[in-house]
Amino acid sequence: MKQALAVITVLLAIVVLWYFAVAPMNIRVSLDQAERAGETVTPELSRDRQQMSAWVLMAQNSSHIARGYELDRPRLPTPVQVGQELWKTTGEMAMRGRAMSKRSLIYHGWITLQSTLWGFVLGTAVGILGAVAIVYSRVVDMSLMPWAIISQTVPIVALAPMIIVLSSQLGIEGRGVPKAIISAYLCYFPVLVGMVKGLRSPAASQLDLLRTYNANGPQAFLKLRLPSSVPYLFTSLKVGIAAALVGTIVGELPTGAISGLGARILIGDQFGTPLAIWAALFAAAILAGILVTLLDVLQRVTLKRMGMGA
Amino acid sequence: MSWLIFALIFWAGAWWLNAWLARSIYRDSKGVRVFVPVLFGVTLLILWEGLVRGLNVSPVILPPPSMVAQTFANSTDILWQDFTQTVFKGAFTGFAIGSTAAFLTAILIDRSVFLTRGLLPIGNFVAALPIVGIAPILVSWFGFDWQSKAAVVVVMVFFPILVNTVQGLREADSMQRDLMRTYAASYMQTLIKLRLPAATPFIFNGLKIATTLALIGAIVAEYFGSPTRGMGFRISTGVGSLSIDLVWAEIAVAAMAGTVFYTLVAGIEKVVTFWHPSQRG
């Protein structure tokens, strides 16, 4: 309860700060508009205004500040404008039965979600298999682990355009596959590290106990190592799915994609519609929140049923 | 064809050698620990070379590593120019500003239990978001030159470092704080002599995460507009104009920059937190 109160207070403070920031951020644009509408603006020339700070402009044109809160193409939109745009492109379109129209963020979010989930599945599979190989084989541990770490220090965005070019040259239609590969690339590492830790977490005495039961390798794996790695697995899955979403958006951003939340950001930039960018950003944040929360619930339920719940 | 066979034989041989080394009596020596992963990396490169040459893949699709190396050697001046633009001006400036700001904010927040309680979940959430998406907004705010890249980097590195520092500052337990109080230590003394040192492993954890983010941010921001230099600019135009070998050379530079940057921070961590159990061993 205390926590919720604190979080809400901080959120409110952020919104208030945001509102205050809108005025200085938008004053130049709104003065330009006012000038074009024939209203009096001091100083009159746009060129003169470039030299002055936003604060001075605000002090001299206090009657035009309000205009900055209702611009069509603001430098910084207000939270309400972003919320309206978000509602206009999701809920309102869904109510008119056009949820899957190309202008709807639900459609773009769905495209992004698909790639994210494919990347997540792929990355998790690679991560878990890699972790099993690392735990059971010394050669793999010695040769793979350093490269797994190095792979994460490589900025994936540099590689992203190449992955897309390569996969299109190989005859793979669409962007689903390359995007999934990019998100798997970001997603596998936390899973790998978490699973290596988890699979190694049983104490030597527990492993010895299983040996006294005459348990063979697969049995020890299924009955001891795997169950004891589950808490680690879920913790890294939560990191992994967030990373997978980042990967998908990175895969959509620089490469001229036409659908997906990242593409909305890109298109919003090209067409100079900041509201579309902000709405897509918030949609991505909401998507990330939902995915992480889902995994969190799944973690609680699973651990409780396994008798490990807190 | 001979290339393909050679690559496959090399692969099998390297695999055998690594397997043998990992089981041999030298397996815990420093030399073997370095040699095994290096051989693995070299094998990957040779496989790549062999596959590309053996299967006659067009260099426009995937150039062999040898060609990339040649391009690299021939265009060091372009690469260096892009490197200074993106890494020194964009990533490093942003990293310095962002980490300093996050560190100071963490210390300020930490004085208030209420703020910590409110900001930590939000910070954790924001740190998991695809913040790269703000790149086009910041580019339109700060212009095309490196300032906008630095701004993207600042926002990207801020939250991981903030969250880690705040968590680290809570690391000193109440017994240790009580001890400081019995010494009549002031807030600043407790902070500098007890809590900050105790927080360093966490701070460095955040800094290490931020190294990669810094490069990602600086490169992505260049896709949205940049002067005619910079690694992101070169990659996005190179893909379009089919100078794929130069793109791979840039990728190699980015990979090396990322690894060196990370190693640098990890090295500093090793020196600063020599007392921590994870560094002894």
Summarize the structure.
The complex is a heterodimer of chains A (310) and B (281). With 310 residues, chain A is mainly alpha-helical. Chain A has helices spanning 2-36, 46-51, 54-60, 79-89, 91-95, 105-136, 138-153, 156-169, 176-199, 204-212, 217-252, 261-270, 274-305.
Structure description:
- The complex is a heterodimer of chains A (310) and B (281).
- Chain A has 310 residues and is mainly alpha-helical.
- Helices cover 76% and strands 0% of the residues of chain A.
- Chain A contains 13 helices and no strands.
- Chain A has helices at residues 2-36, 46-51, 54-60, 79-89, 91-95, 105-136, 138-153, 156-169, 176-199, 204-212, 217-252, 261-270, 274-305.
- In chain A, α4 (79-89) crosses α13 (274-305), α6 (105-136) packs antiparallel against α7 (138-153) and α6 (105-136) packs across α9 (176-199).
- The two termini of chain A are 19 Å apart.
- The termini of chain B are far apart.
- Chain B is mainly alpha-helical and 281 residues long.
- The mean pLDDT of chain B is 87.
- Chain B has helices spanning 2-23, 30-54, 65-74, 76-110, 113-127, 135-142, 146-169, 174-182, 187-223, 231-240, 244-272.
- Chain B is built from eleven helices and no strands.
- The interface between A and B is large, with 57 and 61 residues.
